[in-house]
Design brief:
Mean pLDDT: 93
Pfam families: SBP_bac_5
GO biological process, one term: peptide transport
Domain Solute-binding protein family: 99-505
Radius of gyration: 24 Å
Protein name: ABC transporter substrate-binding protein
CATH topology of the largest domain: D-Maltodextrin-Binding Protein, domain 2
Helix content: 25-40%
CATH class of the largest domain: Alpha Beta
Largest sheet: 5 strands, antiparallel
Keywords: Signal
Distance between the termini: 34 Å
Length: 595
């Protein structure tokens, strides 16, 4: 789906001008030219064996092999296994990228263009060479109106693309944007022959013609899909591919819900599972197979920014338009009680859009932040210049009762008063909303929040829908409240336009689900994107974090700094862990089946 692609784009960032094998933001890349392999892989990992996996997210079926459009539900694994890009990121650096399809990258001294040279050895799955014209075709297709609008938002500063010869092309920019060369380097590349000339939005079941290590071998009616490693894969010896993609076959089986998926794992139907439920982790990963070692339960430390997860409020809805109302709803969430009763004390409350990192705003804004915020003072709440907004707390001397009293006062100020058995506005309309979700585990959390909201006279009604309808309604911004997690990034940049800009708020299919329309936010996103080095970027992100938190667009949830996974004993993994990674993509890329 486009959301997965956004995750890949947002994880890559840029440097000062240079030419060569790699680029990094504000520092020298860790790996020099001619490096052998990434430190977090086993270069001698054995190849072979079949990996069985469940649906990796909330998709319960698929109806397309095209992950670049809004229409339909694309199959799991497509982007990572089949579509390669000019460059690829390093998972043990916050903002570095190294050559993949491109064997050389050159950023102009004025930072208004970047030139890539395509590796002459690169081949598509049909045997055709990957040429500069294919890269340009992929770019032109992805920024067209027929592809997901997220690409256009990310690449709005690209003015033109020039083919220099068969293997070189130059992207020219309308303005300086230090991140843009790496965003371009991360774009998926596919053959001009894919789809037989059909426009991108008409391509559904045509198997991709791309350059990645796997091919689609078989599939069954949206329920199962098997990839086979391409025996003619061109990139096996590259330093950015050595020790990676070791499974001969990878099969995804689709399950209708998380209960069925967990029971299938314990029954031996697949090999690896990521567990996001603290309750399940404590109470379900038990039994003879775990005691015998047939199934292994393990936690892996990571240093990712936590990203924002929470109850998302659609400010396009009139009941959520007032920030005082949004703040009041947040005061009704009792995280400390939930952590004890539901989560076995395993979580930390999210206090930032970039928690667990140096990007988190804290205390009063520092001098560097004030340089960005002061020119916007007339557009900002005075509270932005005070201590950074923290989520509600019920740890003594704080209490839920005190928080609800504060919430009631905020609601009164916003024109909502309790009468005739409900909280009502001046026109007498009761405060009601729908919570939309496509899975069961979050329901009990919402119901705990809803019970507290009832004390204020607010009625929240849950509605569970299937994933296809959920995705369609999200693309149309047709919801009141839902739960969502924004992808984490160690170096935020252009993806912020998609999540938080005023332009994205009015464009269906973008990631601005909350409907943020704030000129101050727009200016701060510009400051993040224009950052010349890591220090500037950190400062700009902190200022943006401060303003977004003050807007109360989300009721923050919680996070863990560990990946909880379970797997079969026939699997093995490298001893060195990366620093910034997601559990399943890391496993698919670097693990192997024991001989």
């Amino acid at each position: 789906m486009p959301r997965l692609i956004l995750f890949l784009l947002s994880s890559l960032l840029l440097p000062a001008a240079l030419a060569g094998h790699a680029i990094a933001l504000g520092y020298t890349p860790k790996y020099p030219a001619g490096f052998a392999h990434f430190d977090y892989v086993n270069p001698d990992a054995p190849r072979g064996g079949s990996l069985q996996l469940p649906n990796p997210d909330r998709r319960t079926s698929f109806d397309s092999f095209n992950p670049f459009i809004i229409k339909g539900t694309s199959a799991a694994g497509l982007t990572a296994l089949m579509f390669e890009s000019l460059m690829t990121s390093s998972d043990d650096e916050p903002a570095s990228s190294y050559g993949l399809l491109a064997d050389d990258v050159s950023v102009a001294a004025d930072e208004l263009s970047v030139t890539f040279r395509v590796n002459r050895a690169a081949r598509f799955s049909n045997g055709d060479p990957v040429l500069a014209a294919d890269v340009k075709f992929s770019f032109d297709t992805l920024v067209s109106t027929k592809a997901s609008p997220q690409f256009r938002a990310m690449l709005v500063d690209v003015k033109r693309v020039r083919l220099l010869d068969m293997h070189r092309l130059r992207f020219e920019f309308g303005r300086r944007n230090p991140e843009l060369p790496l965003i371009i380097g991360s774009l998926p590349v596919f053959s001009r022959k894919w789809g037989g000339g059909k426009p991108i939005d008409r391509i559904a079941w045509d198997k991709p013609i791309a350059s990645g290590p796997y091919l689609i071998e078989s599939y069954q009616n949206g329920r199962q899909l098997t990839y086979r490693r391409n025996p003619a894969y061109w990139g096996t010896a590259l330093p950015t591919r050595r020790g990676m993609f070791n499974f001969e076959r990878i099969t995804y089986r689709y399950y209708k819900d998380e209960v069925a998926r967990l029971e299938a794992f314990k029954a031996g139907e697949f090999d690896f599972i990521v567990e996001n439920s603290a309750k399940n982790w404590v109470r379900q990963y038990l039994g003879p197979k775990f005691r015998s070692g047939e199934l292994i339960k393990s936690s892996f430390r990571h240093y990712n920014t936590a990203g924002m997860q929470g109850f998302i409020l659609n400010t396009r809805r009139p009941q959520f338009a007032d920030p005082r109302v949004r703040r009041a709803l947040g005061l009704a969430l009792d995280f400390e009680w939930m952590n004890r009763q539901f989560f076995y004390g395993q979580y930390t409350r999210l206090n930032s859009y970039w928690a667990n990192s140096e990007l988190t705003a804290s205390g009063l804004p520092g001098p560097d932040e004030l340089k960005l915020l002061e020119p916007l003072r007339g557009k900002l709440s005075p509270e932005v210049f005070g201590p950074a907004r923290e989520p509600s707390d019920t740890t003594p001397p704080h209490s839920l009762r005190a928080n609800l009293l504060e919430a009631r006062e905020l609601l009164r100020q916003a024109g909502w008063t309790y009468r005739d058995g409900a909280l009502r506005n001046a026109a007498g309309k009761p405060f009601e909303f729908e919570f939309m979700d496509d899975s069961g585990p979050m329901l009990r959390v919402f119901l705990a929040l809803a019970r507290n909201l009832e004390k204020l006279g607010i009625r929240g009604t849950p509605r569970t829908v299937d994933y296809a309808l959920y995705q369609r309604r999200m693309d149309d911004f047709d919801f009141d409240m839902t739960t969502l997690r924004f992808p984490d990034s160690q170096s935020p940049g252009n993806e912020l336009y998609d999540y938080f800009s005023s332009k994205a708020a009015g464009t269906k299919g973008t990631g601005n689900f909350m409907g943020v329309r704030d000129p101050a936010v727009d200016r701060l996103i510009d400051a993040v994107v224009a950052s010349e080095d890591r220090a500037q970027r950190v400062t700009a992100v902190r200022a943006l974090d401060r303003v977004l938190r003050q807007g109360d667009y989300v009721i923050p949830h919680w996070y863990s700094a560990e990946h909880r996974v379970a797997y079969t004993r026939r699997m093995d993994h490298p001893q060195n862990l990366p620093r910034y990674y997601s559990a399943e993509p890391w496993m698919v890329a670097t693990w192997w089946i024991k001989p």
